[in-house]
Amino acid sequence: MSSSRTDTGRAPRGGIDRAEIPALVARVCAGERRAVAAAVTELERMSDAAPDLLKALHPHLGHALVIGFTGPPGAGKSTLVNAVISHARGEGRRVGVIAVDPSSPISGGAILGDRIRMTSALDDDDVFVRSLASRGYLGGLSPAAVRIIDAFDAAGFDLILLETVGTGQNEIDVAEVADVRVVISAPGLGDDIQAMKSGLLEIADILVVNKGDRPGSEQTLQQLAGALSIRAGIGIKPPVLKTTATSGQGVPELMQAMATVGDRVAALGSEARRRRRARYLIARAAADLVADRIKAGQGGALDKLADAVLAGDLAPSAAAAKLLKD
Ligand SMILES: Nc1nc2c(ncn2[C@@H]2O[C@H](COP(=O)(O)OP(=O)(O)OP(=O)(O)O)[C@@H](O)[C@H]2O)c(=O)[nH]1
Ligand SMILES: [Mg+2]
Hints:
By secondary structure, the protein is of the alpha/beta class. The chain is 49% helix and 12% strand. It has three domains: 1-60, no CATH class; 61-267, P-loop containing nucleotide triphosphate hydrolases (Rossmann fold), CATH 3.40.50; 281-325, no CATH class.
């Protein structure tokens, strides 16, 4: 399968036997930690059993709310995710975290340890953190992340937090995959506000200026508010919030804003949310198929078509259509 290759850059590895799937899914649905870990591994590697596993998980989906945290490197995404985990756990909610290409670890929410007693993620059955490398996948969010969302959802996690660095294709992908999109900025990140104007700003349901304790945070806030005011298009204007992830300041307000957007999204129904992710997966798979077809045409069909284009017999777009059809 082409997606498995482009996903991880390596061939699928043998995992569990298909016969083990019903028992595994039952344990995942019971929220059993080791079963969740096993399922996630199967889905990340896209093992031979993964398609059947996804199918078996399917009847158990639709509960979780997926919240994307995206923004420039070093803005404090992981620290903020930690703080959100602590708050969510304080409310008794179960949290799954997917961190794509993290350069700094998510600990599982010990950051507000004085206020809300937390053990590390490893000791807490109700927090599951999985880091994911997107290296080897060409551009954008790895489809593995979307598959892991299904495993977490079936396991009954209330919130699934998805941390990604907001660059290029990633931000578009996060917009497709997450139900609620939190875009994080911070003072002192240079040109990044400029970049946000063009891309990240467009996808935000909630804008956060983190590192509120740093000089310039108020200015960053003003800049973002200004950029928002000239944002084209209609729709609900995202709130702009200030947080200090390291102290937890502003995090209750962020929780409140996420709940407000979450309620709005929940009203659409889980099918609409999952349909968006399905559409995204189809589009990615289609792009993989096209890439495969181009590769397969090298030295053969593609060269013949190039001759026809050179001779003026065929327009490049017509040649492309022919390449995909034949
Ligand atoms: N002063 C201050 N420092 C912060 C705050 N939030 C995070 N930091 C620090 O900023 C640095 C980067 O924080 P991370 O949470 O790792 O940032 P990130 O956005 O996840 O970074 P990448 O995953 O590498 O893109 C760390 O040293 C944090 O301790 C904050 O609110 N105030
Ligand atoms: Mg991080």
